[in-house]
TrEMBL record:
Protein name per the record: Large ribosomal subunit protein uL1
Role this protein plays: Protein L1 is also a translational repressor protein, it controls the translation of the L11 operon by binding to its mRNA.
GO biological process: regulation of translation; translation
Organism: Methylobacterium bullatum
Assembly behavior: Part of the 50S ribosomal subunit.
Keyword Secreted: no
Molecular function via GO: rRNA binding; structural constituent of ribosome; tRNA binding
PROSITE patterns attached to this UniProt entry: RIBOSOMAL_L1
SUPFAM superfamilies, A to Z: Ribosomal protein L1
């Protein structure tokens, strides 16, 4: 068994590993137990009753966090002409077409979100092996392939988060910082949970959202009663 340090033991004190806390109680504990010298990210994880190996049970989407994520998101946009100008005006960090393709192919990926206009997807498609494994490939299902680049860039900069279920049936995301007010963190988590709930695939059977937990970057996990994160 791996050695458990004093900091971890101290952080776990007062948290019942078997108890399902309300989301308000869980967030209060996460903030209380965050002890790193930096502003830790608050993360939520959900175990879903799906098997992503089946196409009709894939869960993927995007959520616009009402209070932002607290992250500085660097955005790249593949666009030409007026749409490129629109992207720059909206605050995109990198904008281009063939020139941006060459930059990415060289291995220089200095962005966290990639957006493209539909007409440039044949070009962006060449970067599938580079962007795909990093979760950066533009996709119309999450609003990153669009002619409305202004809204897409604004959403990415404002705190929208993408989610995609992993092989084990888990979705997770950073939904804020420990410096956020508790109410804002709770609101962000509920918005994320609602987005995941709305993305429920047709092939999902039984209980969809089975388990929920929240934690900070360096803190212990706190189990949450799933019904307390859903607004409806």
């Amino acid at each position: 068994m791996a050695h458990e340090g004093k900091r971890i033991r101290a952080a776990r004190e007062g948290i019942d590993a078997l108890k399902l806390y309300t989301i308000d109680e869980a967030i209060a504990l996460v903030k209380q137990k965050a002890s790193a010298k930096f502003d830790e990210t608050v993360e939520v994880s959900m175990n879903l009753g799906v098997d992503p190996r089946h196409a009709d049970q894939m869960v993927r989407g995007v959520c616009n966090l009402p209070n932002g994520s607290g992250r500085t998101v660097r955005v790249a946009v593949f666009a030409r002409g007026a749409k490129a100008d629109e992207a720059r005006a909206a605050g995109a960090d990198i904008v281009g077409a063939e020139d941006l393709l060459e930059i990415v192919q060289s291995g220089k990926i200095e962005f966290d979100r990639c957006i493209a206009t539909p007409d440039l997807m044949p070009l962006v498609g060449r970067l599938g092996k580079v962007l795909g494994p990093r979760g950066l490939m533009p996709n119309p299902k999450v609003g990153t392939v669009t002619m409305d680049v202004k809204s897409a860039v604004a959403g990415a900069k404002g705190g929208s988060v993408e989610f995609r279920v992993e092989k084990a049936g888990i979705v997770h995301a950073g939904i804020g910082k420990v410096s956020f007010d508790e109410a804002k963190l709770v609101e962000n988590i509920k918005a994320f949970a609602d987005a995941v709930a709305k993305a429920k695939p047709a092939g999902a059977k039984g209980t969809y959202i089975q388990r929920v937990a929240v934690t900070s970057s360096m803190g212990p996990g706190v189990r949450v009663e799933p019904s307390t994160v859903l607004t409806a």
